[in-house]
Amino acid sequence: MCKSMKCRVNGPHHLHHTYPQSEDLIIGGIASHGVFVSNLIDFTEEPSPVLLDDFVVVPKYYQHILALAFAVKETNENPEILPNVTLGFHLYDSYFSARQTYHATMLLMSTLERWVWIGVLIMDNDNGERFVQTVVPLFSQSGICFALIERLPVLVSFTEFNGLLVQGAKFHDKVMDSKANVVVFYGESLSVMYLRWFPYLSEKEHGTNIPRGKVWIMTAQMELTSYICQRNWDTEIIHGALSFTIHSNELPGFKQFVESKSPSRTKGDGFLRDFWQQAFGCVFPDTAVGEVDGNICIGEEELESLPGTFFEMSMTGHSYNIYNGVYAVAHALNIMSSSRVKHSPMVDREGLKLQNLQMWQLHYFLRHVSFNNSAGDKISFDHNGELLAGFDVINWVVSSNQTFHRVKVGRVDPDGPPDQALSINEDAITWNNWFNQAWPLSVCSESCHPGTSKKVKEGEPFCCYDCIPCPKGKISDQKDMNECNKCTGEKYANSKQDLCIPKAATFLSYEEPLGLSLASFALSFSLITAFMLGMFMKHHDTPIVKSNNRDVTYTLLISLLLCFLCTLLFIGQPQKATCLLRQTAFGIIFSVAVSCVLAKTITVVLAFMATKPGSRMRKWMGKRLTNSIVVSCSLNEAGICAIWLATSPPFPDVDIHSVTEEIILECNEGSVTMFYGVLGYMGFLAIASFTVAFFARKLPDSFNEAKLITFSMLVFCSVWVSFVPSYLSSKGKYMVAVEIFSILTSSGGLLSCIFSPKYYIILLRPELNNREQLTRRKE
């Protein structure tokens, strides 16, 4: 720490790795070539100079430097580009350090080096948090969720190495034990070397170096690289990985240019010596040190013999971008120079000095530059100054001896339609051996089959879910549906709830057994009633027919006949006419029948009372009273039906909701209140008849019709009381069947209870069919 005001702040240590090549114009560049790994600096004392022994080279990245140098060389040899100006460059190493990057930037732009405008080529080193904040929401919007989001620690010093392995082992276990088979790996180019620790960690922790397979998807700035210590490490973990790479082509002459590089033939390249020693695992003799341990570098080793993780003879996408960047600057300078000459005719071209230009003046020309490079690719920039270039989708296929191949399996075309921006040849992909060349799936939960829907598990990502059966009446006809859909009103869900089936239109028809049976019963009862009516008319002069008003008896039989026949209006497809008639006809006809029963009951009571001495009831006896009862009671029901038809008449309707699998063709009653009003009035007449008959049941006549009426009305009332809940609990054609059954049963009850005893006397006991027998009192 400073103890006096005389302390001064020294600049950073001298940058050991530079590559200057001075010419008329200088392109500045910052490369990522190696990293210093040393003990932590605690700032309690002045740190000692960094030793080269602590410097670790990433051999593969040396190609980036060669790409820039090769582009500058070709530009200077081309007389059509900057004919009177030569390009140079000055490269610094960033050492994968933000501080050293800032230092190199200041050196390139400060007065310590040459008073000119430069282009800066740097690695993409955006931090992971920005990636999470920017990309994760976009992934989520596309239905992608995350099994884990982990931060991979970065090696800063050797003292942290053991701790890094411990953290790396935990990270390894989380990744390998997760259900996710796809892992997107985002990081700087150096990060791939951390990925290669996984087999080592797997062997250390679990005794095996064959970790569970994953599909690694890596970003464009990442390449398959190695530390020196990873020279002989297996690269199987990368096998089958997919990555985006900047589109590149083979450049004529690049391989020969690379092969010409060696420490014995190349001067001024401050990167080459360390690259050579660490890439080939040898040491150059040093007279200052004396004897050295290890293999001696002869300087003529073949770069082509290096493993692909150390160095590649073909140009990578990253290097290709650097190459094009140099050409873009050169073309921009050429255009700017031509523009200045064109607008300054009095100035001699040789007198025009590009060195005097300000750096900002080049920006406009750089944004509008467009040219074809030596590989034939068009290089241009968009309105934002970004390179118009797509990406290749590369499948990494690892072979023996750490050799690998980049297989192009797809293309990203930013200029294409959104639905065609990404194209992939799935059949060309080689997957990790763990997948056995089967299409890998990376899901938290298995697909939900049709008939089920997804239910997100509480507290887990949205792609982790349970599959639950669709609710009744709903279906899912595709896999992994978020919710089941309700079938339209004209369809219903099948038993598997994966298909909507059209509903069948149904009504009570004559073709089906139920309708045919009811129609047969109705006709049978009608024939029986008609036969009884004919029999009574044949014996119309007998006492049993004449008793209790013969005309009312005929009216009752006719109304019962019509009641049986009116049930036929309820069978068959509902039509406008049948819907209007069936309830009203049934109500009026039944009211006539019950009114007749009521009139007969009152007549029985009055007849008995009239036989008493001095009774005044004789004046009420006669047809006028009975006819008045029948007519008035029937007209009341007819009035209710008239109001019903005038206000809210029944009409043909379709019910698609009551029965799941059927569309019910029915008669809508129009007004439910009026429908139950008709039934209620009829019930009132029935109860009145039952009450009067009940009190007259013990009259002393040997043939007391009040007893028969009491029992018949008991049957009648029982049928219609049970009708209401049965009707309301039925649906579709069964509602109609319940009403028909009630009509037939109640009418049949009246017919059998009131007329069967009389029919029995007429046919089988004619001797009882006389006045004395019918009117004698029981002892």
What does this structure look like?
The protein has 779 residues and is an alpha/beta fold. Among the domains are: 18-125 and 251-357, Rossmann fold (3-Layer(aba) Sandwich), CATH 3.40.50.2300; 452-502, no CATH class; 513-775, Rhopdopsin 7-helix transmembrane proteins (Up-down Bundle). 40% of the residues lie in helices and 13% in strands. It is built from 19 helices and 24 strands. The chain has a six-stranded mixed β-sheet. Strand 20 (491-493) and strand 21 (500-502) form a beta hairpin. Helix 11 packs antiparallel against helix 13, helix 14 (576-610) packs antiparallel against helix 15 and helix 14 (576-610) runs parallel beside helix 16 (672-695). The longest helix is centred in the C-terminal third of the chain and has 35 residues, at 576-610. Residues 1-14, 49-53, 110-114, 116-125 and 346-352 have low confidence and may be disordered.
List keywords for this structure.
Rossmann fold, Rhopdopsin 7-helix transmembrane proteins, six-stranded mixed β-sheet, three-stranded mixed β-sheet, 19 helices
Radius of gyration: 52 Å
- Approximate helicity band: 40-55%
**Shape designation:** rod-shaped
The overall pLDDT average reads: 77
Global structural class: alpha/beta
CATH architecture of the domain at 513-775: Up-down Bundle
**CATH class category name of the domain at 513-775:** Mainly Alpha
Beta fraction: 5-15%
The count of helical stretches stands at: 19
Main sheet? Answer: 6 strands, mixed
Q: What is the CATH superfamily of the domain at 513-775?
A: Rhodopsin 7-helix transmembrane proteins
**Could you name the CATH topology of the domain at 513-775?**
Rhopdopsin 7-helix transmembrane proteins
